[in-house]
Automatic annotation (TrEMBL):
Residues 1-24 are annotated as: Disordered. The gene is LOC112288010. InterPro entries: F-box-like_dom_sf, F-box_dom, Kelch-typ_b-propeller, Kelch_1. PANTHER family: KELCH REPEAT SUPERFAMILY PROTEIN, OS02G0202900 PROTEIN. CDD domains: F-box_AtAFR-like (cd22152). This is F-box domain-containing protein. Residues 40-79 form the F-box domain. Pfam families: F-box, Kelch_1. It comes from Physcomitrium patens (Spreading-leaved earth moss). Keywords: Kelch repeat, Repeat.
């Protein structure tokens, strides 16, 4: 028992275990019939609270002790208790693509600094193979104009630049989200068709299972979470004329395991192009997403190789199911909008974005000032180099443990997680300047992999 007590991370809660004051937090007891006591000789509530204080990295070992502990550690009530006790841990989940173009998840335990490998995502053998592989179109098709077929590049990365990629890579163009201690993988392409399929990884049981399918098949959609509900916005589908951008949006409720439609994106600014030719050629698409101040902020662009035009963005309010045009400064100056959700993160209620550059000043971190409608530089000389390869995502941005983190891969294939340590400059009475240090949280090699996406789970 001493081992478990030594694992307690908040001793201030010890006194509350036996407190019978009715005004305190109600006791939580996880009890199972026909099972021995969790810890013989101790009341069930105290035993469960002891287990709840053990670091999450040790849970796999605890689950092997006995069936009683296995059942306790796999229940939602157990993790709700950890949240009430204030001992939850935020882990970083990173989706990577190996040399054989296979996708897989790695998870970083920042407490112990260790990486773990998730079970592979389920096979897609139940999805029928299309026989019209030769009819696949690799970009936007135009009904008129001098260019009959245009290829879309930077938005969808290297996958769209290799012939046959849709036939070989399951989950190509999938998106990810995290709610209720579970990781969700949405859509993507399989056998050249966009999918409605949704898979859920339960971190409590370390298993994948299918969830309710989306109402619309989509790939490369943008995801965000508000009020414990997962939103899927935009993306593309494959039609007769090639890849078609989507205006539709939908929301997933984990309590009912169901999807429902919400108001589609109006793309107002994309509809005011000066000529009919440009309207036909340039297709509006959502290029990013951030859940900010209880709303979904979606920067948008017009794409058609070799053209790229910023058109601001729109903001969705779930309370009223309506879209409004994004403030001019926020939309037009959103850094690295082509990277979508990969280089934006909300930490401490503030919206940050990474702005990669090849200049001598190095890459920068910017924060959005809603009062002045401007993006301001808050971190200079981020210790990463501009990646000139065709990597899908050379960098990722994430927020956990209340800090901003940059995930990057160097030329030696080391995946490194850097934490920004910010402090006010004591010599600045206005507290407008920052002393910035970067701390390496982890650095590990997984071979020649590419970074695809990242999520954070708090359990």
């Amino acid at each position: 028992m001493g081992l478990f007590l030594s694992s307690a991370r908040n001793s201030e809660y010890d006194a509350s275990i036996g407190n019978s004051d009715s005004t305190k937090r109600p006791r939580i007891s996880v009890k199972y019939e026909h099972q021995p006591a969790t810890i013989p000789g101790l009341p069930e509530e105290i035993a469960v609270q002891i287990l709840a204080r053990v670091s999450r990295g040790n849970h796999p070992l605890l689950s092997c002790v006995c069936k009683a502990w296995y059942h306790v550690l796999s229940t939602p009530e157990f993790f709700n208790l950890r949240k009430e006790l204030g001992v939850t841990e935020e882990w970083l989940y990173v989706l990577m693509k190996d040399e054989e173009e296979r996708l897989g998840w790695r998870v970083l335990d920042p407490v112990e600094g260790r990486w773990r490998k998730l079970p592979p995502m389920p096979e897609l053998s139940n999805i029928a193979k299309k026989t019209e592989a030769n009819e696949i179109s690799w970009g936007w098709r135009l009904r008129s104009g001098p260019l009959r077929m245009l290829r879309l590049t930077s938005l969808f990365g290297g996958w769209f630049q290799r012939k046959g990629f849709l036939d070989k890579i399951p989950y190509c163009g999938c998106s990810a989200g995290a709610i209720n201690g579970s990781l969700y993988v949405l859509g993507g392409f399989s056998w050249a068709n966009a999918m409605r399929a949704v898979w859920r990884y339960d971190s409590r049981t370390n298993r994948w299972a299918s969830s309710a399918a989306m109402e619309v098949a989509r790939a490369y959609c943008k995801t965000g979470v508000i009020d414990n509900k997962l939103y899927a916005i935009g993306g593309v589908d494959r039609g007769r004329g090639g890849l078609t951008p989507l205006q539709s949006a939908e929301v997933y409720d984990p309590e009912t395991d169901s999807w429902s439609q919400v108001a589609p994106m109006p793309f107002r600014r994309a509809r005011v192009l000066p000529t009919a030719f440009l309207s036909d050629m340039l297709k509006p698409i959502a290029t990013g997403m951030a859940s900010y101040n209880g709303k979904l902020c979606v920067p948008q662009s017009l794409y058609s190789w070799p053209f790229f035009v910023d058109v601001g963005g729109e903001i969705f309010d779930p309370a009223t199911d309506t879209w409004v045009e994004m403030a001019t400064g926020m939309g037009n100056d959103w850094p690295a909008r082509q990277a979508g959700t990969k280089l934006s993160a909300v930490v401490g209620g503030k919206l940050y974005a990474l702005d990669p550059t090849s200049s001598m000043d190095g890459s920068k971190i910017k924060v959005y000032d809603s009062d002045k409608d401007v993006w301001k530089v808050v971190l200079k000389k981020v210790p990463i180099l501009l990646d000139l390869s065709d990597s899908e995502s050379p960098y990722l941005l994430a927020g956990f443990d209340g800090k901003l983190h940059v995930i990057t891969k160097d030329f030696n294939n080391n995946v490194t997680v850097l934490r920004a340590e910010l402090g006010f400059n004591s010599q600045s009475h206005q507290a407008k300047e920052f002393e910035v240090g970067w701390k390496t949280i982890s650095s590990a090699s997984f071979g020649a992999v590419e970074l695809v996406a990242c999520q954070v789970l708090d359990l």
